[in-house]
Write a structure and sequence with these properties.
The complex is a heterodimer of chains A (304) and B (258). Chain A has 304 residues and is an alpha/beta fold. Chain A has helices spanning 43-50, 73-77, 95-106, 114-120, 136-147, 166-182, 194-198, 218-224, 236-246, 266-275, 290-298; strands at residues 3-14, 17-28, 32-36, 58-63, 66-67, 80-83, 154-158, 186-191, 203-208, 211-217, 228-233, 250-252, 257-260, 280-286. In chain B, helix 2 (16-39) packs antiparallel against helix 3 and helix 5 packs antiparallel against helix 10 (230-254). Chain B is globular. Classes of the chains: A alpha/beta (304), B mainly alpha (258).
Chain lengths: 304, 258
């Protein structure tokens, strides 16, 4: 698999505090990589490092296969766009002026693409309105437009839906999906709003206390979170015999509990268990989500 | 670098604070000229007026530079420059060049307005060479102000903190200048009696050095068109600029940008 970004034992220490502690991650090309973690887990620190805003204390990362310590990393960085924390825009300029300024910074000689960018993020009708009078969602979209100014193929978005209203969240989500599907832009999106992230991401990285807990694809997550029926019985050996006869997938959890990954005919199961002399104590349908998977992985937290 | 300079100059040109700063300084120049012209019974010499409005220059420039550079950090746009692959050195130097240009513009316009008004209303006791020499010294002082405030604003990396620090420094240097100036203007004898407030020897050398190294001290000399030691003035200015550009740049490379 081709990776846009990989990190290897990346560590960032501020005095005695380790914001990143040996973090290793892999962002595949073409993915929407959901970077999940509670507040203070190290998500923004990682983004600051890969954007070149800060230097790692130890470890390394590669961007498009170029090591961060190499001189060419600057060229690799030109292929990415980023919105770190708050959108980086001049508040006393209009949307178009902000984009023109970014074009100058990038050294793009023609401003022809600006209207197209404004259309893409839905800001084509803002005219002479200054950015300071924009709503939070508009500022966020302008920040994304600026990040897209250099025609990047890797977009890094740090908490892009924080503080947005439901309409704003939908707009940003649709924009990210559009960029990923239509322009094949790889997106790294950090968030602690798991429900929203699960609607977007094709890959996940779950970080806690600066350490990568788990990296998995959306398919792998689906398998890990698949629907099941938790059956509590008096004798799991009898349950195993019955389930084997029924030829269904299951996982024994304890002497009395098992998860069954199939649609069960409850009457049939009850009768079969009765014949084995086994009683059913309870039957529960379980539907795990990214949130419950995350909680099971990091043990929950105040800011999840 | 050229691309960054182009972007920074565009922003500076469209930043209303620079025009506000220029307007304020010209306002001060007009006010001082009118006051000197109307308040005195005798004909005031041009040498006393020509650089007088620059007394406020160090404070106005502190506000302008810290606002302008602080805005890059406050609005977070400095991040766009780094992500766009622009080197830290280029970002630092470009911001500094832009800030210094603004300082020079304010200085030149303020002086030109004062001279234009002054030659019509005040006693012409300044030769072109004298004016040119002090004007050139003033250019160095302008660059020192811009370099110090620019370095601080870039290293602090926070708009409100850099404004506060630059303004405090400006007032601090102004107070130091008032103190050194008060000591240095004392005559050795007053009415034929030895003045006890007059300092001499090593102490005087130290006060002169403090007056020369302090850009407000240089402004004080400029406003009265006197110069303790022009070589030391220029030498210390070059030292300030080298430290601000060199050391500031080195520290900026290591700075954690948020």
């Amino acid at each position: 698999m081709e990776y846009i970004l990989t990190t290897n034992a990346l560590t960032k220490q501020y005095k005695q505090f380790k914001a990143l502690n040996g973090l290793s991650m892999h962002v595949p090309k073409g993915a929407i990589y959901g970077f999940v973690g509670k507040n203070g887990a190290g998500k923004t620190t990682l983004i600051r490092l890969i954007c070149g805003l800060q230097e790692p204390t130890s470890g390394s990362y590669t961007l498009y296969g170029v090591e961060h310590s190499e001189k060419n990393i600057v060229k690799s960085r030109r292929r990415m766009g980023a919105v770190v924390e708050t959108p980086a825009i001049y508040l006393d300029m209009t949307a178009e002026e902000n984009l023109r300024e970014q074009y100058r910074i990038l050294g793009i000689p023609s401003f022809d693409g600006i209207q197209e960018l404004l259309r893409l993020v839905g800001l084509e009708n803002t005219g002479k309105k200054k950015a300071k009078n924009f709503s939070l969602g508009m500022k966020q979209r302008l920040g994304i437009a600026i990040a897209l100014a250099g025609d990047p193929d890797f977009l890094v978005l740090d908490e892009p839906i924080n503080g947005l209203d439901p309409q704003g969240i939908i707009e940003i989500r649709e924009l990210i999906l559009k960029l990923n599907r239509e322009q094949q832009i790889t997106v790294l999106i950090s968030s602690h709003i798991l429900d929203e992230l699960s609607r977007l991401a094709t890959h996940y990285g779950i970080i806690d206390e600066g350490h990568m807990m788990k990296e998995l694809s959306a398919d792998e997550l689906e398998v890990a979170c698949r629907k099941c029926i938790r059956v509590e019985v008096s004798d799991t050996k009898a349950l195993i015999r019955v389930l084997d006869r029924m030829n269904v997938d299951y996982k024994v959890l304890s002497d009395t509990k098992a998860d069954v990954f199939a649609k069960l005919h409850i009457t049939q199961l009850t009768l079969a268990l009765a014949q084995e002399g086994c009683e059913i104590i309870s039957v529960q349908e379980r539907d795990e989500s990214l949130e419950s998977y995350y909680i099971s992985l990091v043990g929950g937290g105040e800011n999840v | 670098m050229y691309k960054l300079l182009r972007a920074d100059f565009y922003r500076m040109y469209h930043n209303k604070r620079i025009w506000l700063c220029i307007a304020s300084m010209i306002g001060v120049a007009i006010f001082f000229s009118i006051t000197q012209y109307t308040a005195m019974d005798y004909s005031v010499p041009l040498s006393r007026v020509i650089f007088l409005p620059l007394t406020f220059y160090g404070i106005a420039i502190a506000a302008l530079i810290s606002f302008y550079i602080g805005e890059d950090f406050g609005d977070g746009v400095i991040r766009n420059k780094v992500v766009a692959g622009r080197g830290r050195c280029s970002i630092y130097v470009s911001n500094l060049i832009c800030g210094l240009s603004a300082c020079l513009l304010v200085y030149v316009l303020t002086t030109v307005v004062t001279v234009a008004m002054g030659i019509n209303y005040f006693e012409k006791d300044v030769t072109f060479v004298e004016f040119g020499t002090f004007f050139a010294l003033g250019l160095f002082t302008s660059l020192v102000f811009g370099s110090i405030y620019g370095m601080l604003s870039l290293l602090i990396g926070n708009k409100s903190t850099s404004i506060m620090v630059c303004m405090c420094l400006a007032f601090g240097m102004l107070c130091l200048c008032l103190h050194t100036n008060q000591i240095l203007v004392q005559q050795q004898y007053k009415d034929g009696i030895l003045n006890l407030h007059y300092v001499s020897g090593a102490k005087r050398v130290m006060y002169e050095f403090l007056h020369d190294i302090n850009p407000f001290g240089q402004i004080a000399q400029l406003s009265s068109m006197t110069c303790l030691n022009w070589k030391r003035w220029v030498g210390l200015d070059i030292l300030w600029i080298v430290v601000a550009v060199g050391l500031g740049n080195v520290l900026f490379q290591r700075k954690n940008i948020r």
